[in-house]
């Protein structure tokens, strides 16, 4: 794991704020991308792979469970439309989230997706040295840059299995951001290991957007009140297929919640989104979530087993994978990705994640039949690469 420091003014040199190259970055040794000439596009996300012609492609680029939201959730959202004349009232949804995690409502903040939470944290918290553990979802760093912060990167290494070493995080870091399970590596860090990052005076942000796709949510820190400065972010996008509705939440100490709430605009979460949040906290929903997580684990195992068959073609799988996606490395990945697209499959490029380069691709887990068709397409794409 190595540290690299972004010494820019936080405005970015790219065409979109926060997404520009890390000009003047200082690397302190070890493996990873970055430094002078770093061109990671922090604002590139999986939806870009399917935005223009997604209807013609099988989507393995976006980490949202297929065939969602379920009918009962769509019905609950539809019912909420009769209340659109009134301003949103988040009290019931907030209480439902609090009860689900065994917390008082003062420790819960509803947000327009986890992405809004990153913006609130970047704007509301007064931090001197923020550190983002990469590879991971890039919005935390982009939000921090946009807010004018200088950002240090901790790059986890492929040869170490992208595993966290808490001792490598600088002691003077007063904000540390890490994903669990991590997007795009699919690594599930032990909760106890992440908790070792906590320090007096430090805010520890754990992005658990994909934790509900892990059976039993093992290694979650949601609901913990014994870890100093802990902030847990959750999203309802992935399991329930609500990316277009924008709903997530923050679990944190009351004083942190109060700071974030002051930075939030009035009525930030819509009435339909609040209805969805409340519905997803019921015992029925949680049972369905657990069933879906176990189904994902079975389908992921099938995908990984198929990918291992391509080892002689240079395909390497980041294992063990614990999220609803798998990271693979292979020579000529960009060309393979383009050929897969011509064969009808969209996959996520990996080179926009700090710590990865253009030999990496991320694959969303799909059902067995879709995986089998993808593996056949991958066989053709790799064969064409080698001609």
From TrEMBL:
Residues 18-37 have a biased composition (Gly residues). Residues 1-46 are annotated as: Disordered. CDD domains: AAT_like. GO terms for molecular function: lyase activity; pyridoxal phosphate binding; transaminase activity. Its cofactor is pyridoxal 5'-phosphate. Residues 1-12 have a biased composition (Basic and acidic residues). Residues 58-378 form the Aminotransferase class I/classII large domain. The keyword Signal does not apply. It is an enzyme of class 2 (transferase). Keywords: Aminotransferase, Lyase, Pyridoxal phosphate, Transferase. Its EC number is 2.6.1.-. InterPro entries: Aminotransferase_I/II_large (IPR004839), NHTrfase_class1_PyrdxlP-BS (IPR004838), PyrdxlP-dep_Trfase (IPR015424), PyrdxlP-dep_Trfase_major (IPR015421), PyrdxlP-dep_Trfase_small (IPR015422). NCBIfam families: PRK07908.1. Belongs to the class-I pyridoxal-phosphate-dependent aminotransferase family. This is Aminotransferase. It comes from Streptomyces liliifuscus.
């Amino acid at each position: 794991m190595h540290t690299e420091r972004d010494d820019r003014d936080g405005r970015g040199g790219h065409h979109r704020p926060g997404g520009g190259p890390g000009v003047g970055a200082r690397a302190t040794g070890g493996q990873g991308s970055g430094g002078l000439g770093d061109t990671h596009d922090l604002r590139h996300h999986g939806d870009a792979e399917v935005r223009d012609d997604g209807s013609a492609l099988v989507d393995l680029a976006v980490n949202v469970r297929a065939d969602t939201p379920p009918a009962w959730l769509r019905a609950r959202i539809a019912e909420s439309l009769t209340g659109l004349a009134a301003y949103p009232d988040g009290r019931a949804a907030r209480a439902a989230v609090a009860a689900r995690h065994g917390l008082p409502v003062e420790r819960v903040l509803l947000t327009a997706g986890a992405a809004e939470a990153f913006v609130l944290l970047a704007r509301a918290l007064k931090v001197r040295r923020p550190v983002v553990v990469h590879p991971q979802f890039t919005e935390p760093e982009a939000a921090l840059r946009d807010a004018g912060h200088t950002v240090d990167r901790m790059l986890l290494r492929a040869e170490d299995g992208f595993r966290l070493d808490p001792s490598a995080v600088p002691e003077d870091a007063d904000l540390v951001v890490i994903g669990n399970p991590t997007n795009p590596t699919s690594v599930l860090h032990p909760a106890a290991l992440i908790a070792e990052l906590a320090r007096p005076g430090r805010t520890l942000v754990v992005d658990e957007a994909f934790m509900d796709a892990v059976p039993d949510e093992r290694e979650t820190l949601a609901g913990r009140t014994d870890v100093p400065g802990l902030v847990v972010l959750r999203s309802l996008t992935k399991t329930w297929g609500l990316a277009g509705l924008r709903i997530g939440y923050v679990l944190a100490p009351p004083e942190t919640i109060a700071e974030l709430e002051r930075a939030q605009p009035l009525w930030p979460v819509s009435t339909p989104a609040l209805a969805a949040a409340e519905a997803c906290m019921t015992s029925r929903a949680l049972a369905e979530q657990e069933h879906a997580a176990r189904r994902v684990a079975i389908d992921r195992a099938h995908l990984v087993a198929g990918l291992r068959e391509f080892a002689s073609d240079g395909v390497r799988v980041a294992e063990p994978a614990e999220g609803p996606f798998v990271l693979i490395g292979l020579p000529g990945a960009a060309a393979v990705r383009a050929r897969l697209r011509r064969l009808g499959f969209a996959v996520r490029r990996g080179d926009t994640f700090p710590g990865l380069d253009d030999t990496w691709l991320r694959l969303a887990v799909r059902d067995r039949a879709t995986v089998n068709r993808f593996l056949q397409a991958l066989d053709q794409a790799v064969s064409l690469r080698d001609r």
